[in-house]
Amino acid sequence: MVRKGKRSVHVRVIKHLRETHRQLGMLLAFFMIFLAVTGIIINHGNSLNLDRTKVGVNWILDHYNIEAPEQVQKFSLAENKNALFVVGKQVWLANTLLFTSDNDITAAAIWQQFILISSDNNLRLYNLAGQLVDVMDKASGLPGNIKTLFVDGNDVYLKTAQGVFLSNDELYSWQQYESNKHLEHWSQATTISTAETQHYQQQYRTQILNWERVVIDIHSGRFFASLGVLFMDLVALFIIILSMSGIYMWIRQARARH
């Protein structure tokens, strides 16, 4: 009788457990598929170029509170149809991002068949197609604390905190300029339209976030803030319970067969 009573209890437990297991499995099926799919995407993120593909969807950028600087600088390039735009530390030639600077950009101008871009402590040389040719800094003899620059034919002048410097034809040596000749047309930012400002602010925002980060945050629940993380923790807990109940029922059925 005792053995029969114990068996009936186990039968009822297994019956209720099987029903709970079935309902819980149906409830979690979507989330298990969701986690599996996003996990596969993350696992192959490099081959899918997710780490190099930028997010341009405005509501996602807004969700991450990604904002662009209010000020956009424009440097006209006289011999080039394009202009150079500086947004924060990003430097754009038309719609091509040339580089992200460590320092504030101070000036830009055309020299021969190249674009000169100066920051406080370096001078970058690009061809007109936007390809980097050279970077000069103090180690190559470039004066520091550059405020702006001026191109006059083959001559390049740098206005620095220590005075004005003049280069040779190759830009690899500089000497202090002590002539009384008045220099004009120093490079400076020009007027920019509202449409251009908004366009490059949007361009700036699209460079901040990549799709790999978004998929990882969705997978973990972080995309939905702290409640999303808590919810995904609960989903993981229920998956553990589902697995354990399945293992328990399988063991009981295996024993019953023997």
Distance between the termini: 21 Å
CATH class of the largest domain: Mainly Beta
What level of helicity do the residues show? 25-40%
The CATH homologous superfamily of the largest domain: YVTN repeat-like/Quinoprotein amine dehydrogenase
Q: CATH topology of the largest domain, which one?
A: Methylamine Dehydrogenase, Chain H
Shape: elongated
Mean pLDDT: 84
For the secondary structure, the number of strands is 12
Share of residues in strands? 25-35%
* Total tally of structural domains: 2
| Secondary-structure element order, N to C | HHEEEEEEEEEEEEHHH
* CATH architecture descriptor of the largest domain: 7 Propeller
List low-confidence stretches. Answer: none
Largest sheet: 4 strands, antiparallel
Q: What's the Cα radius of gyration?
A: 32 Å
Helix count?
Answer: 5
Strand order of the largest sheet: 1-2-3-4
Based on helices, strands and strand pairing, what is the structural class? alpha+beta
